[in-house]
């Protein structure tokens, strides 16, 4: 397999959507809605760059490029373009170009159109990076970027509660799956030592043979199933229809919902073929296929109908990937491409209908074929492909799917039954969308229906025509797109020969049966819609309701925990903090048996004993102080005593720093206390003081024991030698301590200064607080309510 480097071209293709996203608001202000034509040049240019790699990819080659990110952890921004990534990338940029143009017409005059362009282009760049990423951590970064940008797009009309709910639901479900996927990638890196998709594919059976295979598979499936809306995680996808129609068209055709399917196709050679894989994926996929299609026929809103058919289609793809045979994977690839074309087109048709007739309710539509002929033609072309009618690319996919499932055993009979039922329901849904709004009489409630501008009808018409041309020129289609994509998914070169010409075989008979059943469902769609709605109403509870219940439960638990942990009392916070620190100091040493040996009493000089005695006197003075000012001044004795020890041990610079810090602390605290009450420091009885005293003693003992354990370990001079060697050579300073603070630990020192500044601001805010009217005595914030 040939592998070439294409750093400049590949990097530019990845960067163009993000560059356009940054410029979108400015271009919108300058050029208005015409900015769509300028911004569409970015994905169009990326499409041209990526199309330039097709000759290499079509011959089994791989294009790679990347940059070091965190070399110490073997993490790179590395990217890899093979047949699978290439086809996905062309769909993302090609359909993305049409979506940007469509957005210019659909959202013309919208006050936030510039912001929308920015979001949709960031979404495009995120998805493009996801399918091209080779390094696992790079893939995860782009995976989460798609979740974040989709959240922004779904919640674009953030003033509507339903839009906000849909955005939060999508982020919660796909974000949770993303965390599971991250855990899976970490397990792969740490246990299998594989850092990239290239490593995984080159390792052969390494993951399947790993004792952590089940764990890895479950975590990867959690990420894929949530992203690609497998039941019961499907609920976010229909609710994402609260986004503007261009988002729905793009999200359902070429981007986010296909991310999980992409991941499964990518990792199929490494994780597939096991009994667990061939059981879990087909089962989840079959259930999602049938239930999604049933819910699609039940819906009355065109966008919701199409959303549920996407859920159903994703189930079909997951089922085929789970079957895992060469024919099933070829069928999955053919269907994925066909679905991207016809579903993107049909969603844009839904937007065009809404734009021209001002409603998407199927039962309120009709007779639009005459005032909207181009939209009707586009809808019909896309529906014929979705229905699996020859000569359209959907026909190629359906024939291959049925041919792949002709195994004869009970399991495959169940799967082929699910495929026929699901495809028939989707056939009916396709023509419900493509025919019912356009045929019949124009309702009186629709006033002045009209065809949209060229940017609105151009996209769906192009995708419908491509659905036809792909099948008519099937040899070129297979050579450049489906063949390389299937080869990458299977892990070996394959040749696809299926054409639009029907063959008299079992697969064709099953296809005819699907069409016949689909026509029957179409004719009975009203009764089926009523029956399905009544059944679901009787059932009542569902995953969507369950999500709301889970969110409410999470909120109640959060409130309960917060009220217990964030009581608003400083003494509670201090007590918990000291207890946790004390436990963290003692428990590890006790469990690991690393408590220090009893130290020998050092031979101290008389002035050293005087300093120690001075520190002890200071401690006693703090404890017995009658007011807070005395306690603060006495507290400084410990700091000054420590500074004297530093001086006696030959560290005058450290001693000077300690003197300055301690003086500053005492002065600041004293100044603050002069603005507050200096009443008795602690008026509680001894039975309340004793636990705090014991806890304080425990914390102090913990630090003492910990430092003693460190001091008894053999001294490692590596850092000392490093600083001694390089302090002057690099930082040009003879005072090693100062060089460490200012140069080697400069960022840390800046952080400490920021902490001191923040503390000062907080103190300033505290002493300026006034409670009640002028003249009212200020409360004592240091007093606590027993």
Automatic annotation (TrEMBL):
Localisation per UniProt entry: Cell membrane; Membrane
Transmembrane segments: 6-27, 34-54, 83-104, 116-133, 168-188, 208-226, 277-297, 374-393, 413-435, 456-480, 500-524, 572-591, 606-625, 632-650, 656-673, 693-711, 753-771
Statement: the UniProt record of this protein carries the keyword Cell cycle: no
Domain of life: Bacteria
UniProt key word Calcium: no
UniProt KW keywords: Antiport, Cell membrane, Ion transport, Membrane, Transmembrane, Transmembrane helix, Transport
Ranges of residues in domain MrpA C-terminal/MbhD: 613-677
Protein name: Monovalent cation/H+ antiporter subunit A
Species this chain originates from: Jiella sonneratiae
